[in-house]
From TrEMBL:
This is MYND-type domain-containing protein. GO terms for molecular function: zinc ion binding. Signal peptide: none annotated. Residues 13-53 form the MYND-type domain. Keywords: Metal-binding, Zinc, Zinc-finger. The keyword Glycoprotein does not apply. It holds the Pfam family MSS51_C.
Length: 473
């Protein structure tokens, strides 16, 4: 996938993903909705872009379509109102284009519309400005510091600039960063992940060491690279900075940690969930075998990053065997037999084992088919379920988890999803642990490399960014 939102705001080549600091970009002359670094890159991408380009040019030149946009020149500082207006604009654009194409838009094409530049104060896009032909503005300008917030006139920018530069709420960011600073951090992350040859290894990085004893995980609700207090480290820095310093130094260490957090958030959230579900009783850290069921697992997320789960063994030196059972319709494996995974040399010498088992089915069907053979795990965890959008099957699973009294935790990409899924868990009969432990709240072990929400002016989401709730019933 291209680096979002840089391609959508014409600051990264749609063909090769070079950003505009590496090579000057030019927009497609026909649709003006996409940018390239060279004629060669545009030619390579033309087969993919051709039909959409023609549809955009045809639709947006239609006077009847253009007449839909009648604009008030007054800026608004009500972000909720601006978000609602933006959603209306984007859905109208996408539905119109889909009718012209006679097919649904791809995820990449939807991102092109939902993440395009728009005025922070009135939601105008460059396209609407051209329709409007207002004497007050001719094109969008960008914030000189982050270049990812836009405005159609100085009056609008002056009205909304404080929203862009003041510290964000605790729900969005707990480290005192502003929207502008978050954007700047995002740009650094994208440049590192797409341009630095070493970045790829940190997307799947985990330390090779084994801890000598279990160390309780911090619960400080901190999610980024700036510290609240002088000398105060985030949970992620406390846990991994010493290990990282052995492989990378300087400013790139924090970039590497943010990249690594996308994958490591899974094993770290598992450990944090077990810690909170068991409270002061730490006997679970000394068990011979720990069994974790991962619900809704996918070939795109948990399966390709399976090697990162060995971090659980590395932080629980007294546990002999870790058994992970991945259950979900998107696991995509040929059989469901247990597989002994290759461990690090230290674990191998000590006879420690790490077993994976995959089942292609919904979790409540898995429990039913196991019948009397079903063994309750130490933890059932569902990462970024999207249950708020695909509720029926998840309601069945939640009901089974509650009835079987299976210790469970659900995570979400953002606050909205977490609140909805928390309500679903309670409706299924779950007695949730304290909110500040397992949610709904920010997950201190959620990924710290975040992505802007496409339908909000100020909003972020990330892997396991929120805990929706945890229960033992």
């Amino acid at each position: 996938m291209p680096p979002l939102p840089l391609t959508a705001v014409y600051q990264s080549c749609e063909g090769c993903f070079k950003d505009d600091t590496q090579s000057p970009l030019r927009r497609c002359s026909k649709c003006l909705s996409i940018a390239y670094c060279s004629a060669a890159s545009q030619k390579t991408d033309w087969s993919r872009h051709k039909s959409l380009c023609k549809a955009i040019a045809s639709v947006f030149e239609d006077p009847l379509y253009r007449a839909q946009f009648v604009w008030d020149d007054s800026p608004s500082t009500d972000l909720q109102t601006n978000d609602e207006l933006w959603r209306t604009i984007v859905w109208f654009e996408m539905e119109t284009i889909q009718k012209q194409l006679k097919r649904p838009l791809s995820a990449r094409e939807r991102n092109m519309f939902s993440r395009q530049p728009k005025c922070f104060g009135c939601s105008r896009t460059d396209r609407i400005i051209r329709f409007d032909n207002s004497p007050l503005c001719s094109a969008l300008k960008s914030c000189p510091d982050c270049r990812l917030a836009f405005f159609c006139s100085e009056d609008h920018w002056n009205a909304v600039k404080h929203l862009h530069t003041q510290p964000l709420s605790a729900a969005e960011n707990n480290v005192g960063l502003s929207h502008c600073e978050m954007n700047q951090q995002l740009r650094m992350d994208l440049r590192f992940q797409y341009s630095d040859p070493e970045a790829r290894r940190f997307l799947e990085w985990a330390p090779k060491r084994t801890k000598t004893r279990w160390e309780r995980l911090g619960s400080e609700q901190v999610a980024g690279g700036k510290r609240e207090g002088q000398g105060k480290k985030t949970c992620w820095e406390e846990a991994f900075s010493q290990d990282l310093e052995q492989v990378i130094q300087g400013a790139r260490a924090m970039l590497s940690l943010r990249a690594a957090s996308k994958g490591l958030s899974m094993p770290m959230t598992i450990l944090y969930a077990l810690q909170n579900l068991n409270g002061e009783n730490e006997s679970w850290t000394k068990k011979d075998t720990i069994v974790v069921h991962i619900l809704g697992a996918s070939i795109k997320t948990e399966v390709p990053k399976k090697q990162l789960f060995e971090e659980i063994l590395h932080r629980l030196p007294e546990v002999k065997t870790l058994k992970l059972i991945l259950v979900g319709p998107e696991v995509d494996v040929s059989d469901s037999k247990p597989v002994d995974m290759e461990t690090c040399p230290d674990c191998g010498q000590k006879g420690r084992k790490w077993i994976h088992q995959h089942h292609i089915m919904l979790y409540h069907d898995f429990v039913s088919r196991q019948s009397t053979r079903f063994e309750k795990p130490d933890l059932a965890i569902a990462f970024n379920t999207g249950a708020s959008d695909h509720g029926d099957s998840w309601k069945e699973t939640m009901k089974v988890l509650v009835e079987r009294k299976i210790p469970s935790v659900f995570t979400s990409y953002n606050e909205s999803e977490a609140l909805t899924e928390s309500r679903m868990l309670r409706e299924a009969g779950a007695t949730l642990l304290a909110q500040n432990q397992l949610g709904p709240c920010r997950n201190p072990w959620g990924a710290i490399s975040l992505t802007p929400e496409p339908f909000q002016f100020i909003g972020w989401y990330g892997a396991n960014m929120w805990l929706a709730g945890g229960f033992k019933n």
